[in-house]
User: Which sequence fits this backbone?
């Protein structure tokens, strides 16, 4: 029977998780870390959650966000260029600047959940298709998982 974790379960589950992580070669995630993780939830895994804007002549052209987890993998989200600036190379400029930032921060891998129509664009910037999420946010709306290894 599946039950919600209780305070009485926390010590045993912390040991179970830290043991599992150690088996995977991640000893830095010890019992103390696991206890905090169980208390704080998945937000403890997020090392950085940032929003950026791209501006030209002090006007916002687009936006992008980067969510980096404790394993040094980052997700690109909220990548939007204003309609009147689309098709003019701003998307590539925004993405390239974000990649440079990720490289500077020694992020191991970048990934994005993207609509299939953006596969060619992301591929041209070194991203590879890793998978497909069918009917992900809405029925008939598939997303592809596109990733780029930086280090």
Assistant:
């Amino acid at each position: 029977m599946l039950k919600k974790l209780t305070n009485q379960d926390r010590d045993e589950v912390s040991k179970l998780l830290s043991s599992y992580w150690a088996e995977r070669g991640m000893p830095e995630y010890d019992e103390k870390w696991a206890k905090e993780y169980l208390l704080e939830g998945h937000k403890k895994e997020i090392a950085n959650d940032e929003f950026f804007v791209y501006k030209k002549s002090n006007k916002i052209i687009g936006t992008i966000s980067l969510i980096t987890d404790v394993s040094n993998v980052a997700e690109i989200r909220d990548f939007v260029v204003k309609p009147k600036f689309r098709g003019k190379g701003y998307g590539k400029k925004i993405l390239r600047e974000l990649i440079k930032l990720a490289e500077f921060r020694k992020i191991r891998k970048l990934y994005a959940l993207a609509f299939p129509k953006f596969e060619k664009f992301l591929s041209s910037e070194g991203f590879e298709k890793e998978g497909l999420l069918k009917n992900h946010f809405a029925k008939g709306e598939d997303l592809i998982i596109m990733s780029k290894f930086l280090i």
Observations:
- The CA atoms of residues 17 and 23 lie 10 Å apart.
- The mean pLDDT is 96.
- The radius of gyration is 19 Å.
- The chain has four helices and six strands.
